[in-house]
Amino acid sequence: MHWHPSLATGRLNLHLLPSQIQVLVHVRLASTANVGADTSSSADAERHGRHKPHHHHVPYPFPTHPNPTPHQIFHLPVGASQSDIKSRYYDLVRIHHPDSPTCRSLLPSPTARHERFQKLTSAYEHLRFPTAHSSRIGRYDSARHGYGYEEEIERRRRHQWARERNRSSGAWSGAHHYRGWQEQQGRGWGAGLGGAEAYGEWNATGDDRWKDRVIVAVGLLSLVLGLAPTLFLNPYSYVDQRHLAAAANLAQARKEAREYGMERRKEIKKRVSDYRRLREGEEDGDGKESCPRREEGSRRHS
């Protein structure tokens, strides 16, 4: 009994999964099926004692001429439905995916395999969303350039080069930057892609150097404001000054308390000594008055 990937696909209900997961599952199932088929064929050949030459029959070969259209890559007519495009995309992914055994046998170079699969993916995006791609000048023009991924790559390369030149050179700023880009546009930088689109995309990037300058200026200002109190103001902060003032007031209060206490103690001692003298004087006076009275009494009794 031969195992077929379509059976597993039906059991797993792959249509419920996201499109990226579906592509990966199809590629894995196709590669497993191809490996099993190659193993069984090689085993049969060894069993019969003969080696058969490997002739890989590709049902949907990639076009050999340059700049193929998306419909030529998918082997579909111009009015194909979205369901046919999606189904054919799964079939092409099984064949032309860089990890597929069939693609490895057709293209030994990994770079060529990835480039072909990138073209296949771009063609699928164009067929799935034709309105978005047709609105971009130069993406696809069947009359002049075919499918425009080469022009798109070249446009991005020129755009990156111009942006790096703008960032590294300070001359391209303001009006000079505007005139310089207009001159380059007039020389044909936007050929095949639409000069108006290229010019608009270049203006959209702008000069980002002012952002770096603003960040550096804000950082320096923050540093100066943070170090200013310690560099330009008094060595003691406001809190330290308040603490020192409170300590001085407390010491003054203690000093005044000691002085006032000594004076008060002296005053108290003086009052006590005066009171003692007064009492001693009173006692001496009472003793002198009592002595004559006693003498008179003794005389009367005698």
TrEMBL record:
Name under which the protein is recorded: J domain-containing protein
Key words of the record: Membrane, Transmembrane, Transmembrane helix
Listed Basic residues bias regions: 48-58
Cited Pfam families: DnaJ
Source superkingdom: Eukaryota
Domain J: 69-144
Source taxonomy: Eukaryota, Fungi, Dikarya, Basidiomycota, Agaricomycotina
Segments for region (Disordered): 36-60, 273-302
Entry's transmembrane regions: 214-233
Amino acid composition bias (Basic and acidic residues), ranges on this chain: 287-302
